[in-house]
Amino acid sequence: EQVLVLKSDPITFATDAIGQYAVIVNANDIATSGAKPRWLLTTLLFPCGTVGAEIWEAMTDLQEVCRKWGITLCGGHTEITDSVTRPVVIGMLAGTVSKRKLIDKRNIRTGDRILLTKAIAVEGTAIIAREFADRLERLGMPEADIRTCREFLSQISILKEAEIAARSEGVSAMHDITEGGAATALKELSHAGAHRIRVELDLIPVFPQTQTISRLMGIDPLGLIGSGSLLICCRENGVEPLSAKIREAGVAVTPIGEVLDPGKGVSAVKSGEPVPWPTFEVDEITRLFE
Fold this sequence. Notes:
The chain is of the alpha+beta class. 33% of the residues lie in helices and 28% in strands.
């Protein structure tokens, strides 16, 4: 028996490569349930003054990215409207998975280990480098480092590691990091799984370029939009085999915490001492657009 998994997500922070963000961000969410992303519908909203070439570029980008990941772009709607001040793409993606292979966050249990792939704030790093390159240069960031950060866009998919996890024994839940960053994603995971979570802050990986951008822009990477990083809950005896498979696929993975008793909330430890878990009312990147 097959289960239909549905997801809808808008792309509101990026204007460059917006089609790629729209496909990958929606596909990521489908993949965390163990499903294969299959069919995409999009609504494209452009501000007044947009020329045809810009619309064509976005639509071509959507088609190419869908083709790369085996997703069918079924259709949608395109409009120029004074209701937006920059391009917005809303995607609605459907996927399928066998009912017995559906991954449900309610299956997490006390003692499960929490793994994180790549590093936090990958997407936010790419967006800031693409949308605020001039500001970063004025603040002293070398042009070569900005170019490197722009290419983080190629790392925002979690489909590879999610597929590996979905086939592995002992995986109880997956959750991709999006708006609100790792801090918000771990809270969401705790609430969805109805278990408290403990995280070792010192273990959370952050790319050096992300640290530099965060320092220059005065933002916290824990609260920065982070597609490209996958949280995986796994039974303790499955951690090593799963980690080995993910690393063999060329993806970094790091244990960062564990699932505690039933309840809700995240507790943090830094340098062996308990510290408050940060809360972000909005994603840190929104402050840069004000």
